[in-house]
Specification:
181 residues, 8 helices, globular, mainly alpha
Amino acid sequence: MLFPLSMLVIAITDVFIYLDFVKYYTVIAVLIFTFYGLCSFLLKDFISKKDVKLKVFASPPVIVSIILIGYLIFSIIDLVLPKIINSVGAMSLIVIGLLLFVTICFFIYVSDRYEKSIYLFIAACCTLFVDALLAINELYYYSREFTILINGVEILGIYFFTKFFIDTKPIDIKSINDTYF
């Protein structure tokens, strides 16, 4: 039931975005945070405490990825903050929800316990792209081509998120160990 609810929330969010992004920014932020919360809650059965390994964070690719994602978020906030200075709380909700969702997707992907975890990685990348480009498109430089690109990537992200739930199965660790070790 949570999945259809999350899809309804994102559809309502898109309506408010098209009506007036600046006017409804607080409502949009709450809806986006709700969407990320629902999606994160849907993924709770795919992650366990043993999947969260701190030594994974010490690897160079992960450190570079964290720095790049952090820089992306900082740059977008720095760019659009003057236009939404009265909505810092709403913007914080979006960033917190986004980071929670992306972190959960990352841990599921890195734990490599499910066959189609790459789909979650793609969905997380799509959400990062959509949130970044949406803020630029609506608050800084509007372009119809950006709107088309945002909608396409949003649909692609939802497709891969949905595909993960449909296609994923746990990886049989015993057969992998037998094959490679």
